[in-house]
Amino acid sequence: MNFELTEEQLAVQQAAREFAQSELLPGVIERDETQTFPLEQVKKMGELGFLGMMVDPKYNGGGMDTVSYVLAMEEISKIDASASVCMSVNNSLVCWGIEKYGTEEQKQKYLKPLATGEKIGAFCLSEPEAGSDATSQQTTAEDKGDYYLLNGTKNWITNGNTASIYLVIAQTDREKGHKGINCLIVEKGMDGFVVGKKENKLGIRGSDTHSLMFTDVKVPKENRIGDDGFGFKFAMSTLNGGRIGIASQALGIASGAYELALAYSKERKAFGKPISQHQAIQFKLADMATEIEAARLLCLKAAHLKDQKKDFGKASAMAKLFASKVAMDTTIEAVQIHGGYGYVKEYHVERLMRDAKITQIYEGTSEIQKIVISRELLK
Predict the structure, then answer these.
(1) 126, β-bridge pairs
(2) Fewer CB in 10 Å around end: N or C, the chain?
(3) Which residues, at least 6 apart from 91, have a Cβ–Cβ distance to it below 8 Å?
(4) What is the pLDDT of residues 316-354, one digit of tens each?
């Protein structure tokens, strides 16, 4: 085992940290307040290569490893989880899915602009009645010979309005169950495709979360990813990698809150000395630091296994399950350490606490992660 990061990985981490501090921190509270998508900042993320980090350079990507991606996600998420979830979806779900399973034509047409951030991607699996139960797709893709006729509604779609390229999971043959599901690449502007209202959320309020409606949308057959019926396997495989991204986001939210709490504890005085000198606060900081380090190691292990092309499903589920709990616990304690100041927006920690909760829900709830883990244990 080697726990040392390479020079290249350290450089990526430093670049992400500097970008987050200089570009994302200014205005982050206001964007949360007004639910404003960080469009200019995301464009810059694309220019710096943060939206196609693991994509092969021949498709305009950075050709980086998953460990570098985890490091960058953590640094971005410390400051603005609304920006990092856009980064996670574009990298882990959309780019990776097309590069891994798409045709050469699909890669040339869609992956290249996605990797540079020229276009943004969205992953469309959840529905009003199909969240954790991903097999219950009500969205249909009727086979019409040289095209599919797409009908249905998708919910909670990250990058819902900002995206130009959508990976839509739909049922083609209900009698075949999950083996009758396909994934189609849908472009914004296709007739019958409508973006619905933006959700008014507890956290990641700058993130662009919308419902999507499809009414008799004609999707060319060449836009199907993989063979007929491959859609469910595609979604599950892609989500395995996506969980590394969300685990890293949770890690970043936790470490960001911890760093703020640590700094505040050295400044705030009570009973004649900094509160960091009181054992009650010291024990909180010790617990936070230990749990964050454990979460970080789980994230890096999952990333390492993925880079080694080994089975990383259980590791990514463990990383997401644990890191999301650490994010929730740490942000609550960070607010507590700040006292009354933690409850007001200008100190950032209340926003991080609100942002943390979603990491226990999206890309597989914590309960689903336990199912994934236990299945692997019982094989």
Answers:
(1) none
(2) N
(3) 51, 52, 53, 54, 69, 245
(4) 999 999 999 999 999 999 999 999 999 999 999 999 999
